[in-house]
Amino acid sequence: MRIELVTAPVLEPITLADFKIHAKVDSGSFTDNIDESQSLVPGSYAIANNYTTHVGTGIDVLGYSALVILNSGTNGSNGTVDVKIQESDDNITFTDWAGGAFTQVTTANDNAIQEKAYTGSKYIRTVAKVLVAACVFGTTVIRRTATTIEDDLLNADIITSREHVEDITQRALLTQTWDYYLDEFPSDEDYYMLPFGNLQSPVTHVKYTDSDGVITTMTVNTDYIVETNGDQCGRIVLPYGKTWPSFTAYPSHPIVTRFVCGWTTRALVPYKIKAACYLIASDLYSNREGQIVGGFQYQENKTVKKLLASSVLWDEF
User: What pLDDT score does 276 carry?
Assistant: First the structure.
């Protein structure tokens, strides 16, 4: 049996911003912890029935928590303002950010402030459409800049904490893709198990390779059934009346199952697991030279062990 990571998780159980709060890492005063950038400069904007005339400046928010503020002044008679947030990977090509449209500003709700927290990690800007009459407004992006030169270290500690928890629990915490290799199908069972728990269905594929190098892809619900089993280990199961394929196997890892596993959002990760991640990451950050206890390097955190005890998968592979 062999297993290989195909796609690593893009989310971690805890965010950099949350870890900084937990570890009390910031740059000092409140004013030092934020900055502001104008996207659409405050002023009177003429009628434009499109989102290409009034285009704000792009602002880099990669690695920051960001709050976008629409500050509306007085609308012209019956005038309306529609503002939305757009995002970009390169500060050149922008697309609408889902959920980024502000409530339309009319003469009934002008001279007010609206806020939207941006939860992505790209360049952002605001664009506006003005109808009927010129209107006064502007947009500002506030970034939480409680950043330090150690951000790379903090991110590495977060990733390491997640990987360590995965080692302890034998789980994949958040969405990731793996290839699971077998040398042969089970001879005395009508199923085989997949590791890491939280199997996401359907599996990507089950394939086997014969001695001539010919690859056959099995058909889900015809040749096999996927059994997800909640947060426990999933299984590949033979349908009623079916048998495993009979073939002369390729000499190197002839059977592969590609599957996706892990919780789909960090909100679904149990609090005990997140707490363990915080403890491990904090320990790594605070004791970066290693802990020495009684002349021996200290490696075990008993609180972490207790927090994770009920989350360990005990299945053997």
Answer: 95
